[in-house]
Design goal:
Blueprint lengths: L16 H8 L11 H26 L6 H33 L1 H12 L3 E7 L12 E10 L5 E9 L6 E23 L19 E2 L5 H4 E4 L5 H7 L2 H11 L3 E13 L8 H17 L15 E5 L2 E5 L7 H4 L7 H23 L4
Antiparallel strand pairs: 1-2, 2-3, 3-4, 4-6, 4-7, 5-6, 8-9
């Protein structure tokens, strides 16, 4: 059962310096690395910027004859050096602030005050959501849990490789639903860019299901092929209204027995209003979808009436989801595959022509 009210005082109150210092020593090296890891790169970058700026100024202004262009170039070099030093100073300040552990201390005290647990660094979480799984360099930070299965945290992972590698950071909240359901995704339209989904996966558009009312203006609903009727059963008008009212700014995923809420900003944060909003949203949604526990997948069996010595009773299929409904299908970008084969074919043809002169 989620807390109906939160004690958020620890998120903003001045910390106890002695207890903070003791807590800081328990933080992992990934959060509180050595000071030299902050100072040496910054010092090297700052000295290099000053040296290069001085060298350009001497080279241009020390020749005796100085033109306006020389002054402009020298001023530009000095300006770049000042900007580099300023950015470096900000980076050093942030690095030293992270080493103080005050953020982690406040979140730990907030969790303790509300009967929750806190992990500053949780590593790879074994959760079925789309931002988890086999993601490269997956790390979860500032993870808060309760005894009932609620987890709130921030997740980072990478995609691509070499120069195309990109780092992604998501805030998430997830709670158990009490029963396994078909894999459903509600892609919020409010956080899309130029009508392009911000989800970390690309879902096959044939799975998109249109619902009545204004729901399609707020969410794009995806359901596995053959589970359209089940999605309509689960997303009744009152449930749709609750999602629009409470979660229109979030992407939503239902997979296995969990409900996930995703945001491109941190959800485990030092902002009391964010925590109150997250808990209120999860409470409102889970209260409304409690009826989902009555859902059964008729692909696992039929509901039938049985009469025997014990009397007449209704036998329903077991809880669970048949294989076709367990996971949505991701889109296959055939155009890129075809382009890759075409480029490979052209490369092979060029090699054969150079070696054997096959083409006139």
């Amino acid at each position: 059962m989620l807390a109906t009210s939160l004690d958020t005082a620890a998120l903003t109150a001045p910390p106890d310096r002695e207890r903070l210092a003791a807590y800081r020593e328990t933080l992992p090296a990934a959060i509180r690395g050595p000071v030299r890891a902050i100072w040496w790169p910054a010092l090297t970058l700052g000295v290099s910027a000053v040296f290069l700026a001085g060298f350009f100024a001497w080279l241009l202004l020390g020749t005796g004859e100085v033109t306006v262009d020389d002054v402009v170039v020298a001023a530009g070099a000095i300006g770049i050096a000042v900007a580099v030093i300023a950015v470096t100073a900000v980076g050093v300040a942030k690095g030293l602030q992270r080493r103080r552990g005050e953020r982690q201390w406040r979140l730990a005290q907030f969790a303790a005050a509300n009967g929750l647990t806190y992990e500053p660094l949780a590593g790879r979480l074994e959760l079925p959501g789309m931002i988890f799984g086999t993601r490269d360099r997956q790390v979860a930070w500032d993870v808060v849990r309760d005894a009932g299965g609620l987890i709130v945290g921030n997740q980072t992972f990478s995609t691509g490789s070499d120069r195309n590698r990109r780092s992604h950071r998501w805030g998430f909240a997830t709670v158990r639903l009490g029963t396994n359901l078909p894999h459903l995704v509600l892609d919020a339209t409010s956080n899309d860019s130029l009508r392009v989904s911000n989800l970390p996966v690309s879902l096959d558009p044939v799975q998109r299901l249109s619902l009545e009312g204004d729901f399609d203006r707020h969410f794009a609903l995806y359901a596995p092929a053959g589970y359209e009727r089940d999605a309509l059963y689960l997303f009744t008008p009152d449930v749709m209204a609750r999602f629009i009212d409470e979660a229109a700014a979030l992407d939503v995923e239902i997979v296995d027995d969990r409900l996930f809420l995703y945001a491109r900003a941190d959800l485990s944060t030092l902002d009391p209003e964010t925590w109150e909003w997250v808990f209120a949203t999860v409470s409102a949604l889970t209260a409304k979808v409690a009826q989902w526990q009555r859902w059964r997948d008729d692909r696992l069996g039929e509901t039938r009436v049985v009469g025997d010595e014990a009397g007449v009773r209704i036998v329903r299929p077991p809880r669970g989801v048949a294989v076709p409904g367990k996971r949505l299908t991701e889109r296959v970008h055939w155009i890129w595959i075809a382009l890759a084969f075409a480029l490979a074919g052209l490369g092979l043809a060029s090699l054969l022509d150079d070696a054997f002169g096959l083409f006139p």
